[in-house]
Design brief:
Strand content: under 5%
Number of domains: 2
Low-confidence stretches: none
Mean pLDDT: 91
Distance between the termini: 55 Å
Helix content: over 70%
Largest sheet: none
Oligomer: single chain
Radius of gyration: 24 Å
Number of helices: 9
Shape: globular
Number of strands: 0
Order of helices and strands: HHHHHHHHH
Structural class: mainly alpha
């Protein structure tokens, strides 16, 4: 009896596979503007981007900064376009993941996990606790000397911790797309693959018959 009920529920869940292309589509549309904004910002300030990549004192101190800045910029821009189109998605996911991994280990990792500083919780550390103390001091100053209600009328004041949280999340999303592909129907990859497979099947059948 229980097994029969389980099978019915499982079959009901399996029925949703007809729209299983929705998940990769939403991932693509979520990630595309993030990479577009990151890439176009680098392109608009390319000299500053190169300087930041190469300077060891206040930047990343990476070798070949011109080349790496160029690759990072156009990987993000083209990646955004390919994400929207669902074109060559598994291929473009590889350099996008590489870009995120580089960002994690050169920009964010020293700041811990959290993107926004939180004094408590699993990923809190001495850095975020200190940030919370400084934020409390800043709030006190603003409450005493500023229009605090106006300043916080569109959201609470926070300290950007700039940890690996966002970059790691984007990496996981890209890794999911690498394995699933762009999804059904609303992607160039789906229709190209369908066309190539149909043409291959026709060619194979024709060759065998002849």
């Amino acid at each position: 009896m229980l097994l029969s009920v389980y099978n019915k529920f499982h079959d009901s869940l399996d029925a949703t596979r007809v729209v299983d292309g929705l998940a990769p589509l939403l991932l693509r549309l979520y990630l595309a503007p993030i990479f577009w904004m990151a890439g176009t910002k680098k392109l608009a300030n390319f000299d500053s981007t190169v300087a930041w990549f190469g300077n060891a004192d206040w930047g990343l101190g990476l070798p070949f900064p011109e080349l790496l800045a160029f690759l990072a910029t156009w990987t993000e821009i083209l990646g955004a376009v390919f994400l929207v189109l669902g074109f060559a998605l598994r291929w473009i996911s590889i350099p996008l993941i590489a870009t995120m991994i580089v960002a994690i280990f050169t920009v964010h990792i020293d700041n811990g996990w959290l993107a926004i500083a939180e004094p408590q919780g699993l990923f809190a550390n001495d850095r975020t606790a200190e940030a919370a103390n400084r934020l409390a001091a800043a709030k006190g100053i603003l409450q005493e000397h500023g229009n605090y209600n106006w300043l916080t009328g569109r959201g609470n004041l926070v300290v950007l911790n700039n940890g690996i949280e966002f970059a790691a999340t984007y990496t996981i999303m890209l890794l999911s797309l690498f394995f699933t592909g762009a999804g059904k129907f609303v992607s160039v990859d789906y229709w190209l693959n369908k066309k190539v497979r149909n043409d291959t099947a026709v060619f194979t059948t024709s060759t065998i018959n002849n």
